[in-house]
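Write out the 3D structure for:
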Amino acid sequence: MLRTRRSHFCYKAIVFIWVVFFPLISSSYHDVLAGTEEVYKNIEVFSEVLRKIEKSYVEDTDPKELIYGAIKGLVGTLDPHSFFMSPEEYKELMIETKGSFSGVGIELTIRNSVLTVVSPIEGTPAFEAGIKAGDQIVMIEGESTKDSSIMEAVKLIRGPKGSKVKLTIRREGTEKPIDFVITRDVIPIKSVRSSFLPFNIGYIRISNFQSDTGEELSEALEGMEKEKKLEGLILDLRNNPGGLLSQAVEVADEFLDSGMIVSIKSRDKKEEKSVAHKNKKSRMYPMIVLVNEGSASAAEIVAGALQDNKKALVLGAATFGKGSVQTLFPLSDGSGLRLTTAVYFTPSGRSIQASGIQPDIKVAFIPPKEKPKAKKPSAVRESDLEGHIEGKTPEPKKEEEEGISPDVRERIDNDNQLSRAIQILQSWNILSHMESQQTQE
């Protein structure tokens, strides 16, 4: 009876594998005919191994785990961004793209066969704990991550709010691995934040690209433009791991009145182009886009589009370099397949795969140091002399009068890339006004 059950399972498994593998290994009926003999040969080997496991393996096996394991192995031979998900994993991914999940808040990839942080999401437990882009996660809860898939790692890292997870990190420049014990929390991702900087410069931070990012950006821009006449805008895409391609196109379109945003080429060499539309309001103020090694995928699409269309200067460090597009395929049993289906190119035809977006102005981030205590100046000035006459120069406006809060001032002081961007926009405006005056004269 057991023999009959196993034989029946083998037959069903072979049929199932054929049904699953068939669309993955063929793009057209002609291709199938050309490779039929090779396909049958490989399927035969697979069924032979399956029969041996059923007949001779030392313990009973779960048919579903065998099939899922085989599919994961198949997809795992492709590239770091393609993977198969069980129904539970696929459901979690769908929840994440809608903007809320429970975990620590990091975007992961596999780089050189090692589980690597693309970037921590701003404001999350991982970000606050000090996890950085490029960190290699070598252990989760004391267990090695060697040969772990991204989804397996995600499953271990996520958990109920308030629970803790221990991540062991290998970081460039440190001799020994670093342990981080992080308390999980609900990660409600508000993807767009905005504020004002000195000199009427607007600041917009996009932390990732989810289903409503384009709409959030539009609302933020309209609100800022109603409140003040912007003399410039800084779009901060640092440590933005990417997200939905459609939202990257919407964001770039907010700033462009014409020109190409991105082109996508798939296996069949067909090219899809996304083109900017005329905006109701023309945004003529100068722009700077901030990027770093944690800016990836959709963030790189936006930076590349604004750079190639001469709409903005890109400042910071070279980006991550993920120039491929993934498509999600729901499968019949509730599982899912994330498959790399195309590569994208910037408007000038650049592929940023592995090389990333190169900034127009390279500025490495310098971590803030503890400020030294103020020393009494050695040189004597007029103001130091007893009985000196007070000057008539009016005092500069306080930051509160300019609408700049102490928190914003502290952020500028501790962020050399942001500070440099402000200086450039300020100089830009000064030179523009000088040129305008000379023209009038």
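Residues 2-77 form one domain.
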